[in-house]
């Protein structure tokens, strides 16, 4: 399994570093291949790099780690996504970060599935702040990653990925449940940034 | 502080029993006052009962514990809500319980505030299954109750109520954040009923 991480922002860089560090085979994709190469070199000689389409071509799982507003353009640059598991980690936030631009009758994940019909979209990691991606940032806590999608094999692959990186993977049902997971991500942003808890909180479903 | 609980379904009965048992002054309201009286008698001689408007009139805090579809009719029967804190505990679920009938650009809580402009609406308790209302049902776990609203005094009153019943009250921001809390309640329903965890799960924000 090779994982392409498209994007080198906080989430993309954090996921690439985490996955490379926990034994996954990683390729960094960026519209600027030189930027991807320079970041890959930082992560170690076993991490590959390329333009977006080149990275996608090499990978089985493609993590779309760009802001929601850049998704359409990124997917246009991605080339053939047939047979790829496309992991949507976005929260489709408004410009002030206090609300969502889509919801209720659709979700970012479903919109992405429409834009990339040949890929198998899985929603995951949207409730994990980038600060909590490094293993040491989690200080021994096993955080939950909620995994939603319509294809069980694709969900299993993403769940294994999350587990290999030290998270608990929680089956969150079909892709339409992104309609609930994205508001959970947004509530997490409120707790972290607007309600004083700081970006080291995460939602967790407890079993009594 | 007197608390009116309107409705004697699972949530209404559970909250009335819990609050009466943890020292709150409770009045049960039901469109059938005889039903309210019979349930109040079951809870103890210190619990009052009446029709909906009668219960509301006696109370400082009114917990609206009816299904979302019955809210409009219930508020019509409630009489004067001026000065009352109106606690919305609903999840505005679809008939198959798998989705929400309102969301994204509004929420049940905001719709209730529109229907009852003279009341001060606070969203709370919508992520707690009725099975987890009894103190013994929580088996020593301190569950979080998310409290959203635009009036700090009203939120404080509801937070104190939640704390008196053994919960941790968590400030969830303005009433518009019900747009996120209601999908969290719906995800909780999915975990509890459709994803095999059973109705003894609850969302919890952990601090790493």
UniProtKB/TrEMBL annotation, chains A, B:
Chain segments annotated as coiled-coil in the UniProt record: none
Keyword Oxidoreductase belongs to the record: yes
Pfam family, one: F420_oxidored
Domain Pyrroline-5-carboxylate reductase catalytic N-terminal: 2-92
UniProt cross-references to InterPro entries, sorted A to Z: NAD(P)-bd_dom_sf, P5C_Rdtase_cat_N, STEAP_metalloreductase
Superkingdom, taxonomy of origin: Bacteria
Keywords assigned: Oxidoreductase
GO function term, MF aspect, one: oxidoreductase activity
PANTHER family cross-referenced by the UniProt entry: DUDULIN-RELATED, REDUCTASE
The name this protein goes by in its record: Pyrroline-5-carboxylate reductase catalytic N-terminal domain-containing protein
Source organism of the structure: Rhizobium miluonense
Lineage: Bacteria, Pseudomonadati, Pseudomonadota, Alphaproteobacteria, Hyphomicrobiales
């Amino acid at each position: 399994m090779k994982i392409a991480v498209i994007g080198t922002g906080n989430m993309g860089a954090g996921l690439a570093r985490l996955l490379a560090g926990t034994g996954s085979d990683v390729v960094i994709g960026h519209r600027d291949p030189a930027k991807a190469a320079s970041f890959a070199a930082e992560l170690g000689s076993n991490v590959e790099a390329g333009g977006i389409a080149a990275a996608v071509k090499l990978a089985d799982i493609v993590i779309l780690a760009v802001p929601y507003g850049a998704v359409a353009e990124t997917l246009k640059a991605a080339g053939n996504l047939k047979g790829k598991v496309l992991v949507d980690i976005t929260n489709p936030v408004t410009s002030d970060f206090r609300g969502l631009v889509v919801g209720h009758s659709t979700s970012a994940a479903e919109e992405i599935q429409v834009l990339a019909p040949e890929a198998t979209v899985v929603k995951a990691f949207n409730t994990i702040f980038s600060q909590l991606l490094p293993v040491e940032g989690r200080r021994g806590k096993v955080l939950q990653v909620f995994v939603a999608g319509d294809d069980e094999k694709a969900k299993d692959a993403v769940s294994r990925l999350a587990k290999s990186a030290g998270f608990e993977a929680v089956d969150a049902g079909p892709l339409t449940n992104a309609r609930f997971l994205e508001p959970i991500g947004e509530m997490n942003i409120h707790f972290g940034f607007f309600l004083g808890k700081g970006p080291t909180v995460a939602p967790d479903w407890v079993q009594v």
